[in-house]
Amino acid sequence: MTFVKQKRAEWQHSGKWEKAGKNKKCGTGCVVLRNKYNQEIHDQTAFCKRWDCRTCAPDRAAEELAHYLRVFHDLFPDPGLFYAEISMLPEDPRPRLRQRCAVKNSELLTVVNSSVLYCFSSADLTGSKAPYFRRLTWNEVVEKLVAALRVPGIRPHGISASAGWRRKDAPGTHRRLIFTSREAIRRAKERIFGLEDELDRDQYAEVLLAYIRAAEEELERERNKAARAAEQTEEVDFDNFL
Question: Whose CA is closest to 131, among 145, 121, 142?
Fold first, then answer.
């Protein structure tokens, strides 16, 4: 979808990321997976998937945008889509919205971006207190959805949707065996190199995981040793000053 790719590129190059900073740990981890069908073992880089990460957030936002554009398109021309936006201060209006949603048996999507709550519903959820909903045209739907999903800005756990609208990811083909560092994986593979041809798949998995854990312990010992050395360097020998 060209429109979604365009928005993802805009979000990736937004100047607001300079103020948001960078998650330096993203992409430094590694996950070891086993294929559920052929039992093969492989590893891949693990990303943080956080909304304040310049690497991950634009991709996540683009996935949400593509999904909800499809969901909302099916509502036009009828029954249509209703929208409201309200500040999260001084109180969180979402409990009130969930009550109205249950009464009217409607679907609801809420997005907290900065201090603003964006609300999309399949029914008019206007009540005696704000937020007050209005019906959107399709062009307005696209405009408001892009505004709600822009990054940086989305709060952690800021996107919530009712069951009928929620994204349903396909069942995974792999089972996670262990999460570790890329360095531990490298050391483990160095140790197991030369034995791989002599091992079947189950043996290879067991040996690889054992070596990964041993490599992790070794890295931890090295970090502790370096920390102790740094502490000793910082200690002042007062005898030299007497």
Answer: 121
